[in-house]
Amino acid sequence: MAKIRAVGSSSEEDVFLKRIQSLGLIQIEEEISRAVKEDLGDYKIDGGNEKDIEHTLNEIRHAENFLEKYSVPKSFLESVVGGKLVLKTRELLEIVGDFDYKTVVERAKSLEEAASDLKEREEKTKENLALFETWTQLDKPVEEIRDGTSCEITAGWIPAKFENPDISPGVCQIIQKNAKSCSIVALWLREDREQASKKMKEMEFEKTDFGGFRGKPAFIVKGLEDNLAQIEKEKTGFFDESKKLVTQIESLRIVHDYYQNLENLKKAKQSLFHTRHAFVLEGWIKRSDMQTLVSASSEFSSVTVEEIDPQDSENPPVALKNRKLFKPFELVIQLYGMPSSKSVDPTVLLSPWFVLFFALCLTDAAYGLIISAFSLVAMTKLKNSKLLWMLFWGGLVTVAAGILTGGVFGDLLREGDQAYVKIPALTGFFGKLVWFNPMDPNPLPGSSSPQAMIFFRIALLLGIVQIYFGMMIGFVSLWKDKKKISALLDYGVWLVLLSSLITALFSSQMCIDLNLFEGKSSPLPAGTALPALSVAGVMALLVLFFGARDEKNWGFRIFFGFLKLIVLSGIFSYMGDVMSYVRLMALGMVSAGIGIAVNTVAFMIAGLKIPVLNWVLFAVIFLGGHIFNLAISALGAFVHTLRLQYVEFFSKFFEGGGKEFKPFSTSGKFIVLRD
Description:
56% of the residues lie in helices and 9% in strands. The relative contact order is 0.12. It has helices spanning 13-23, 34-40, 51-68, 76-81, 89-98, 101-132, 193-202, 217-246, 249-271, 290-297, 330-336, 347-362, 365-379, 386-404, 424-433, 452-480, 484-505, 510-513, 529-546, 554-566, 571-580, 582-606, 613-649, and strands spanning 2-9, 26-28, 85-87, 151-159, 171-177, 181-189, 206-207, 273-274, 278-285, 304-308, 671-673.
């Protein structure tokens, strides 16, 4: 990544900015170098006056958000992997020129106001309806419930527990009653007000406000119901109008991105430093794009571009750059966070591990084939989706893993008397390809342990190899960064220490007792255990004394060194990391187990003597069960494979904190320009 500075005349500023926006090569710095400010004096940044763009963009965005509620919901696939409309610049400009977005925006605004009005009317009508439904048995117009010259009259509710309300010397009549309350009308002479009011208060009386309505409650209810019916009609018409307008949403989104680009152009202009007649731009560019920028700048008579040295405090943005085969796996990094500008890009390093672990978590050839085929079909609509490409490669490797472990729709191709598929040639051929079947409790010929133990050993072995791989990456990174002491003490010592402990383990009977090795004796001579432990002891002392070498106090240094040796990224931590890879075996066997259970139930149903129905039920259970198993197993495989990369692998070398390189370009939220 290189830092550049472009200087040019103000007369060519706008055209130059549009040119580099179309190229999408530069991430423009928001703050210009202090040296430039000091050299050029106290000039003000040009804030721009294009407020109309922001206003227009907000209006379009508001209309788009409103119409999106009435558009066809995105499919699950589109929601997960996204997808943008690909256009050429010429097509974009034609749509922007022909499409009357103002009419759509105004219409959307009026519909939104109508929707708000309808909702308010509906809520108010329902509220009044609920009120008058408790008074339908009142055979008097509500406007007649008012005080007279010598008496006072009121209406309201009291709790249902007061079945015989007594406000004597006044009178009270229950109009309606439900489980919780009674609606009443009460009357008393004015001189009895104090006495009646006291009794009304004791009965927890709550006065009713009829809100200016006139007539008998039963007629009022009828009118309110008619109003609700009318509101429903208006809502139907409003919905139809909104659905018609939704047909314009794609064009509206295209215009949105057009104005978004103009807004970005305005912000880019604000980031530049201006003198009276010139502009200064600073930013970051990939070194491989430098020549393209120089050629583009030569189109402008006043613009010069030069590479400048970044300041010590600056951290260049990070652009992941990998070959096409590995590019989809950049998604793993982007989900985690970008590496620092000085750290290694782990995309290529993790790609083989990712597809291998994904495959081992599924271990079903049919599932792998379906995932790859589904990804290919989906990519015809959602091109360049990194997630789909990752699933495609993961699916292919799953096919191989499924064949080697005997998984095809669970145990569909199993051999013998219990075979589901009565084609011995097919099941026999498939059986010859199977290396081991973790679901088979019988050991392989010449072995004494269940076949699942092979899976267990493979998982542990892969864990050890990947952890070693990560440590070696960390060692090389520090060594190249001329931090050789750190490389030796933080990685070299641990590589030797762990290797010595593993050597000692496989030189003893313990590896046999733990079923880590097939056989009656350890694979390494017993005599190598003591030298290996001696080396491990020396390495442990190095960790003890130099693991926390930044501590100046020797007491604290040894204390923290001890913690680092045992707990903090120490021996137990490495043991935990390795054991974490057992999840590969667990997930793989769970996928196979569910598949076997589905087959057992489905073929049991098929064997029932219920003509036709038995096969219908078989199809439902077989297809539904395997689709369910495929979905949850693939999700689990993806998540746990990510987890192994992030927690066990990245922790050995990855240094995060980098900022993603985001070049100033014409790409928008909904469209991608490809000329």
